[in-house]
Structures are given as structure tokens and as C-alpha cells.
């Protein structure tokens, strides 16, 4: 059995392809921990899927014969989970079942499959005669090698903390005798190691879906052009934004917006503050332009906003020609609560 095991969330239509899903369970029994999308009839299905995707290391999408039950938005839980995994930039492994030309495949499933094929990098096809285990051996190893994840679970016998304890024991304990003082030192070391493990696990768990406090800050890097004495120079600076500033900026953009619009929104926020901040360091600068957030920080910001349930992906019907975002009801209410009330309220 491998020393390191990962958490893989399986995105699929509920109550479909039991033999294929059972084959996944058997294959990954010694390799990974699996969670699955649950029935869309459960009111918690979407929240559960999003939380599993937040926590997982890899996402495995299985597209078979069914699109799944369409929810109020007109899309299925499988579709929503796929969008969530993309938004969180999770490594994706896609298994798509091939159908005969005469097969009765719904228009929704055809459209969804086409979108996934266009967007995904690791796509593998199967049919009723495919040896799923042999397919997964290649597909899974290829995904792990291309998207190495340093986290994951390690068997207790292989944890570095235990090796440290063994080194402490070897240093102080002789084969013939063990003093009470040595036993005490070993006990203290073991307790300290256990506390560290519990503390690290608590930090990891608490970091998922952590609500954002408006007074807290988010630091980003940005580039800009500064005009000084007729000369133009490129500069790079760090800026600290409060979540309240970010929320107010998001509330000003259209109801649905693209990732490019999100970037433009943050760039405008940066521009409104950069002029004064740069001039404090460079008093001879008379103008600042072309403020742009660093792409890595934009991606990081987007992940945090999704994880905090401030923004979510939305689609028009079942076709996804472009990723479009919108503020969640939670973020809208948070913004309204922060606005001053009218005198007659």
C-alpha cells in the first residue's frame, strides 16, 4: 500500500453507472480516499459538493449516460461540481463514455460533454468493454505526475514525527537500562509531537470556507507606469486592501461579470489608491497609470472569493461559451448591511 494517499472527489450524475463507480472504489482503495457527489434531491447537495471540492487534492469527473437532474438554475449537480472544481483550479481527470451514433443522448449531456472536452487537458474515453482498472493505472499516474500535490495523508508508521521520536529514543535509551529522567523526557517529547499534529490538523480544517471579516486585509502585488519629469518608468509595488474595499468594488460591477471584468474591477480599486501611495515614496511623480494586479494574486483572490461564498459561477442555460460570475446572495446581503441607513429607516 502506498505511504501517501490523496483525497479525490468524484463528480458524477447520481444513481448512474454503479459498476463504473464501484470499479473506481476498488481501484483507489489503496491509493486514495474518495468522496462522491450526492443526490441532487438533497437540499445540501450543492454545499456538500463544494465543501468536498474545497478539501480535495484531485477531482475525477465521470460523464456517462446521464446529465443528472437539472436544478433550479437549469444545470445538474454534476455540472455545478465541475464548474466549482474549475473555479478552485483543482487538477481534473475526466472519464467520458463513448456512445454509438444511434444512442439516445440528451442535448444537455451533449452540450456539457462538448464544453468539458474543449476545456479539460486530461480526458480519457471508455465504453462497456473497457478495463477501467487498466485505464486508471495510466490516467491516475499521469495526473499525479503532472500535478504533484505535496499534501495528502501519510500512514502513521511513515510520519516524520514518529521518526523524530525514534531518534530521541535511540539517543537516550541504552539496551540495558532506562532511567526515570529519560522516560520523562521521552514522554514530554511524545506529548509535544502529538500536540503539534493536532494543531496542524486544526489549522488545515479551519482554513476551509473561512468567512472573511471586512476589517481584515488582503495583500497583493501590482505593476504600474509612473510619469516623473517627462520620463516613464515601470514600477512594481505591494498594496494592502481591506475586504470591505474589495466588496464595495465588486458591488459596483454588473450583475454578471467575466474574469476579465473582475480583473478590471480590482485594477480600478488599485488605481484609486496607488496614486497617493506611490507619491509618498516618489514625490516627483505626477501621474500613475496602467495599474494591474499580478496574475498569481488575481487567481489567489478569485479562489478566496469563491471559498468564502462571495462569488459563484453562473451559466446561461446549459451552454458555457464563457465563464461568467456573479455576487452570491450572501455577499449582496453583507454589502447591504455595511451601507448607512436612510434617515427614515
Question: Which short descriptors sum up this protein?
Answer:
single chain, about 350 residues, alpha/beta, 6-stranded mixed beta sheet
Structural overview:
The protein is an alpha/beta fold and 345 residues long. The strands form three sheets. Strands 1, 2, 3, 4, 5 and 6 form a six-stranded mixed sheet that branches. Strands 8-7-10 form a three-stranded antiparallel sheet. Strands 9-12-11 form a three-stranded antiparallel sheet. The N and C termini lie far apart (65 Å). The radius of gyration is 26 Å and the shape is elongated. 45% of the residues lie in helices and 24% in strands. It has eleven helices and twelve strands.
What is shown here, in short?
The protein has 345 residues and is of the alpha/beta class.
Count the beta strands: 12
Strand content: 15-25%
**How much helicity do the residues have?**
40-55%
| Structure class | alpha/beta
